Amino acid sequence: MKAVVQRVTRAEVTVDEEVIGKIGHGLVVLLGVAEGDTEKERDLLARKITGLRIFMDDQGKTNLSLEDTGGELLIVSQFTLLADCRKGRRPSFVKAGDPEKAEKMYEEFIEICRQKGLKVAHGSFGAVMQISLVNDGPFTIVLDTDDL
């Protein structure tokens, strides 16, 4: 699994000009499920993201996690994170997970984050979406379970 994680002051996701998910201070997670990903990768990534200490404490140091601050999550599926651009100019997406399996993993990822007591908003799997956000910092991290 791959994820782009952005610390934000606010964010929303829109489908067909309708806001379907909206958060205040927290994290936007663009989530890509790869072929061969299992519950192990899903659980690892959920733990890592919700526990990342990237929020400021009283001394201005990044010592607090989303769980510590009561921040919110906006999770959006994004298979294009699995693009292979090594050949030619058109990306290949053969490394992306089967859509049916990927949607199941995406939904389970959302539920795991909710079970941690976090407010979680999300996009619509497979839909064309527009995401608006205000990156706080800016603070953006790319995570790949192959490297964790």
Characteristic key phrases:
single chain; 148 residues; alpha/beta; D-tyrosyl-trna(Tyr) Deacylase, Chain: A; 6-stranded mixed β-sheet; two-stranded antiparallel sheet; 8 strands
Please characterize this protein's 3D structure.
- This protein is of the alpha/beta class.
- The chain has a single domain (2-142), classed as D-tyrosyl-trna(Tyr) Deacylase, Chain: A.
- The protein has helices at residues 39-51, 66-69, 99-115, and strands at 2-15, 18-23, 26-32, 55-56, 62-64, 72-77, 119-122, 130-144.
- The strands form 2 sheets. Strands 1, 2, 3, 6, 7 and 8 form a 6-stranded mixed β-sheet that branches. Strands 4-5 form a two-stranded antiparallel sheet.
- Helix 1 (39-51) crosses helix 3.
- It is globular, with a radius of gyration of 15 Å.
- The chain starts with a strand and ends with a strand.
- The model has no long low-confidence stretch (mean pLDDT 96).
In short:
The protein contains three helices and eight strands, in the order βββαββαβαββ. With 148 residues, the chain is α/β, with parallel strands linked by helices.
Number of strands: 8
What is the fold named in CATH at topology level? D-tyrosyl-trna(Tyr) Deacylase, Chain: A
Strand content of the residues, in percent? 35-45%
The average pLDDT value, as a whole number, equals: 96
Kindly name the structural category: alpha/beta
Instruction: Specify the number of helices.
Output: 3
Q: State the end-to-end distance.
A: 10 Å
Which CATH class?
Alpha Beta
Helix amount: 10-25%
Which segments are poorly predicted (pLDDT under 50) over 5 or more consecutive residues? none
CATH superfamily: D-tyrosyl-tRNA(Tyr) deacylase
**What is the chain-wise order of helices and strands?**
EEEHEEHEHEE
Computed Rg: 15 Å
The CATH architecture category equals 3-Layer(bba) Sandwich
Number of domains: 1
